[in-house]
């Protein structure tokens, strides 16, 4: 059968592999198949294509998670204009951690579908110095004070929806610590973000980083403002994050897990929580009109 092959595992199981070329309509040697191939590969990195469609088990090993990211395209200078709630809606996401600093990312969605990261916060260096000096690490109340300072500068509209890694409810279960509760007591009500199953949030980031033709020129949906808060750390994480290498005979016997290798991806995780929430522009809330879909009675900075 064209496009089919077999292999035998170390324990004797016979596995049949069927390639897309087994379908005559998708055979790249034909005009119809070549057309399908060109369309199917749009928006997909070469490594992921080889893994998903060419039955290349280790194709992603050691490759960049976000090959679409280009600092010259996605890391842009602030435009010098005022960001207002009449045109932009802001999301805030938190990635808590029991030992390392909590991470925060703000993302603005415009009326026209643009997505901009105006600010990031990950005070890991300050948190480390506190611990080296035998001082307690930052608590939720400390982070809330930092968030208030940022939002009081009115550099961008205050957050409309606040999300947190759902694991924040039981990170310190042994110590009976629930970060949702701790932040609520400190003044912010976070909503549980959607779970990043099989790194679906990372796929969302890749999708938003891809350039598409807008008004006659190629532009990405997502950009990050240069020099704002810890956005340089976010950019570094996006550039450095790679999939784990998959070595040894096992790579020929089964599909290796496509897990990112670098542990410093807290800001990336924040960004993924927001994109999984499908951020879009929302009409500004009127004073005393409530928090809309989010039952939040306390807000940072006010």
Q: Give the oligomeric state.
A: single chain
As a percent range, the share of helical residues equals 25-40%
Give the total of beta strands: 11
What's the tally of helices?
A: 9
Q: How many domains, as an integer?
A: 2
Strand content: 15-25%
The CATH architecture of the largest domain comes to 2-Layer Sandwich
Classification by helices and strands: alpha/beta
The ordered H/E elements are EEHHHEEEEHHEHEHEEEHH
CATH topology of the largest domain: Nucleotidyltransferase, domain 5
Strand count, sense and closure of the main sheet?
7 strands, mixed
Tell me, rounded to a whole number, the average pLDDT.
81
Q: Give the low-pLDDT segments.
A: 248-253, 288-302
Could you characterize what this model shows?
With 302 residues, the chain is of the alpha/beta class. The protein folds into 2 domains: 4-53, no CATH class; 71-276, Nucleotidyltransferase, domain 5. 27% of the residues lie in helices and 18% in strands. It is built from 9 helices and 11 strands. It has helices at residues 31-40, 46-53, 71-74, 124-132, 140-152, 179-186, 200-209, 231-240, 266-276, and strands at 4-8, 14-18, 75-76, 88-95, 103-110, 115-121, 159-164, 191-192, 211-214, 217-220, 222-225. The protein is globular.
């Amino acid at each position: 059968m064209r496009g089919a092959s077999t292999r035998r595992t170390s324990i004797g199981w016979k596995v049949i592999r069927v390639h897309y070329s087994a379908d005559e309509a998708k055979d790249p040697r034909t005009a119809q198949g070549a057309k399908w191939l060109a369309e199917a590969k749009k928006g997909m990195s070469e490594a992921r294509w080889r893994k998903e469609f060419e039955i290349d088990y280790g194709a992603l090993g050691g490759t960049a998670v976000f090959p679409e990211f280009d600092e010259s395209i996605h890391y842009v200078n602030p435009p010098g204009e005022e960001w207002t709630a009449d045109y932009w809606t802001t999301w805030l996401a938190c990635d808590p951690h029991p030992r390392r600093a909590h991470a925060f990312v703000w993302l603005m969605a415009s009326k026209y579908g643009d997505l901009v990261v105006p600010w990031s916060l990950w005070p890991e260096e300050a948190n480390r110095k506190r611990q080296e000096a035998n001082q307690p690490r930052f608590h939720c109340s400390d982070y809330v004070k930092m968030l208030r300072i940022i939002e009081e500068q009115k550099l961008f509209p205050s957050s409309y929806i606040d999300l947190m890694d759902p694991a924040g409810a039981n990170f310190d279960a042994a110590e009976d610590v629930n970060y949702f509760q701790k932040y609520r007591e400190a003044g912010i009500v976070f909503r549980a973000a959607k779970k990043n199953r099989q790194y679906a949030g990372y796929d969302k980031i890749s999708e938003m980083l891809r350039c598409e033709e807008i008004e006659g020129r190629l532009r990405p949906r997502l950009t990050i403002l240069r020099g704002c808060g810890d956005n340089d750390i976010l950019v570094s994480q996006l550039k450095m994050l790679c999939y784990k290498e998959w070595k040894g005979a096992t790579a020929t016997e089964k599909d290796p897990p496509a897990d990112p290798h670098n542990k410093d991806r807290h800001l990336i995780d924040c960004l993924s929580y927001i994109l999984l929430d499908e951020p879009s522009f929302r009409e500004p809330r009127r004073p005393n009109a409530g928090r809309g879909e989010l039952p939040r009675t306390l807000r940072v900075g006010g």
